[in-house]
Amino acid sequence: MFMNLVSINAILGAAGLLLALCAMLAAFVTSRSNRRLAARCVEVESSLAAMGRELEQLASISLKTGRRVKLLEQEYAGVADRVVLLELRGSAQSFDQAIDSARRGTDPGRLTQQFGLSSGEADLVTRLHGRKKTA
Asked: What gap in Å lies between CA 100 and CA 113, rounded to an integer?
């Protein structure tokens, strides 16, 4: 019986030793895993901060671009109207009609409205072909 007791104690001692070794191995693996996780968290936080800075830059660029687009829209708002006038004008026949009308005394404003000429074109047609003013 003493032998059985010694062998049970030896088995329990070996089992305890094995259990202690397993616990130490688990603690080592957990510690290593925690270090990797901590390093990954630092890396992700750094990446997140860089992304935040890039997002701020993009927002700034977007704001500036929006302002530029608005300025361009304001600057070229009359282009569509001008294109419509040019399409209405058609060919050189409009200039011929505008010249005839200027010879009959039509003022530049009326030439602009009636024939789709720009104010500069209407002034030129009136000066070149309009009635001469007598003093």
From this structure: 15
Determine the longest span between alpha carbons in the chain, in angstroms: 148
CA distance 77 to 15: 88
Mean pLDDT, residues 83-108? 78
Residue 50 and residue 34: Cα distance in Å, rounded?
24
| Average of per-residue pLDDT across 129-134 | 74
CA–CA gap between residue 78 and residue 73 (Å, rounded)? 9
| pLDDT grade for 133, boundaries at 50, 70 and 90 | low
Q: Where are the domains of the chain?
A: 78-129
Q: In whole angstroms, how far apart are CA 53 and each of 37, 40, 71, 80?
A: 24, 20, 27, 40
